[in-house]
Structure formats: C-alpha cells, structure tokens
C-alpha cells in the first residue's frame, strides 16, 4: 500500500505487480483482501477493456499513516541500532547510491 500512497492518484495493476515483484494471481489475491477491508479500490480503465487501476481509499491512507511510527521504530531496532556510527554512514552512502541507480533505471 505504501507504493500506492506514493503515487499521485492511481496505478495500473500490472505496474504495481512489477514494482513489488508479484505475479498476477498473487497480486489479485492481495488486492482482493485489501479491497474487502476497504483499503483500496479497483477500477476498469477507459482505454483497455481488461485494464485495471488501483487506488487507495481513505482507510488505506489512514492505515499507512498509523503504521509509520511502528515501522520507523522497527527500522531503528533492526538496522540502525545494530551499526556503529561509521557503519551507519557507510550504509547510508551505499543506500543513496543504490536508490539513485534504481531511479535511473525507471527512466
């Protein structure tokens, strides 16, 4: 759901599947559960008869916001606290480099 939260409006189902590396059946099982809980909404696209877009519902956005403090705490416990300041600096540098490379691949 975080990927959907980062998108301006909606994302096509096939794009979402590619970003999270899910095959089509797995993605649709997850979307079924999220939709049943009122977290997302699926809509037919206008330009393709079988095309589907996925967008967050207000409850989905609220769930993401509610999870942020716990997620930040988990990251600190799992990664940050395990590293020395020097290791954390190297980790940060490597992470930034990897993110820049990944962004260049999306273009």
If you consult CATH, what is the topology of the largest domain?
Arc Repressor Mutant, subunit A
Please, what is the oligomeric state? single chain
Task: Using the coordinates above, name the CATH class of the largest domain.
Answer: Mainly Alpha
Q: Residue share in helices?
A: 55-70%
Largest sheet: 3 strands, antiparallel
- Proportion of residues in β-strands: 5-15%
Give the full name of the CATH homologous superfamily of the largest domain.
Winged helix-like DNA-binding domain superfamily/Winged helix DNA-binding domain
Element layout with pairings:
Blueprint: H1 2-6, E1 11-12, H2 13-20, H3 24-36, E2 40-44, E3 52-56, H4 58-78, H5 85-106
What report would you give on this structure?
By secondary structure, the chain is mainly alpha-helical. It folds into two domains: 2-59, Winged helix-like DNA-binding domain superfamily/Winged helix DNA-binding domain (Arc Repressor Mutant, subunit A); 68-106. It contains five helices and three strands; from the N terminus they run αβααββαα. The protein has helices at residues 2-6, 13-20, 24-36, 58-78, 85-106, and strands at 11-12, 40-44, 52-56. A three-stranded antiparallel beta sheet has the order 1-3-2. The longest helix is centred in the C-terminal third of the chain and has 22 residues, at 85-106. It is extended, with a radius of gyration of 17 Å. This is MarR family transcriptional regulator.
Output the keywords.
single chain; 107 residues; mainly alpha; 2 domains; 11% strand; extended
């Amino acid at each position: 759901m975080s990927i959907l939260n980062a998108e301006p409006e909606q994302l096509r189902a096939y794009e979402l599947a590619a970003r999270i590396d899910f095959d089509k059946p797995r993605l649709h099982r997850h979307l079924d559960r999220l939709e049943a809980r009122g977290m997302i909404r699926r809509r037919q696209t206008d330009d393709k008869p079988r095309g589907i877009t996925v967008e967050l519902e207000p409850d989905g956005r609220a769930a993401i916001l509610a999870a942020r403090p716990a997620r930040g705490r988990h990251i600190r416990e799992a990664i940050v606290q395990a590293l020395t300041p020097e290791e954390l600096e190297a980790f940060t540098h490597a992470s930034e480099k990897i993110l820049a490379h990944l962004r260049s691949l999306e273009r």
